[in-house]
Write a structure and sequence with these properties.
9 helices, 8 strands
């Protein structure tokens, strides 16, 4: 029995669409993509805008996420001591290797980045909390997919594995082969698969014997070396022990 409240679900899908588009959406675009009649959509959008859950630009006629959503998200992060603890762990990893560290979870077939601590170096990877990327094309995403079966992969990506760069894995068999290795070693690797000139090492974090989250360290290729990889692997393995204890109490 489906107990979802359709009007509430409609608001959620509107916000998720606008979030996914990044640059924003026009009213007609929202209507067409979600199949919501304009007469039904207009009062919902107007109410969200008036309460600052959406912002509107008169010139572009685009709706984007509003300041109220940022405030709510910030309060969520502040109310969770677990996120402070996770950030502390990430800061220690950055101190140990000097590179940018991310923390994320799997959301459908995408990585959802929940936290990051920037590299101390002037040249580093650009990324943003709240950003989503196809999991198969990232080191952290492959760590999150480590326990997936071939059937699950096809279900997550019914349209196939689309390239993000020239190096992205687009073959299901190769992806599955790598995931089996990650499950055995608990370390994942990415070589310019989501961003040119960036390599990553990632580590799945388990909860109740399933992957719940993951860390990744992103390194520009000109600073990547076998020696640095060994340092990053050691740091990820060391701090994953503490992260596992924290994630056990997080609602992810």
């Amino acid at each position: 029995m489906n107990t979802e409240h359709k009007p509430t679900l409609r608001i959620i899908t509107i916000l998720e669409l606008i979030s996914a588009e990044g640059k924003g959406c026009k009213l007609t675009e929202i209507s067409n993509k979600l199949g919501i009649p304009m007469g039904t959509l207009s009062p919902i959008i107007h109410t969200l805008k008036e309460n600052k859950y959406l912002s509107y630009d008169d010139q572009s006629q685009m709706y984007t996420l509003g300041i109220r959503l940022f405030e709510i998200g910030s309060r969520y992060m502040q109310c969770s001591n677990s996120f402070e603890d996770i950030t502390s762990i990430m800061q220690e990893i950055v101190k140990g290797c000097g590179e940018t560290v991310h923390f994320g979870i799997l959301d459908g077939g995408n990585v959802l980045y929940l936290a990051k601590v920037d590299s101390t170096e002037p040249i580093r990877m650009y990324s943003a909390i709240g950003k989503r990327l196809p999991a198969y094309g990232t080191g952290i995403g492959k760590a999150l997919l480590a326990g997936a079966s071939m059937e699950e992969l096809h279900r997550l990506y019914p349209e196939g594995l689309k390239p993000l760069t020239a190096h992205t894995i687009t073959d299901f068999d190769e992806l599955y082969r790598q995931l089996k290795e990650i499950k055995e070693t608990s370390l994942a690797y990415e070589c310019e698969e989501s961003n040119e000139l960036i390599r990553c090492v990632a580590k799945p974090i388990y909860k109740n014997n399933s992957v719940a989250a993951a860390f990744s360290v992103a390194v520009p290729t000109f600073r990547y070396s076998a020696e640095k990889q060994v340092v990053i692997e050691r740091l990820l393995n060391e701090y994953a022990v503490y992260a596992t204890q924290i994630v056990a109490y997080m609602n992810l």
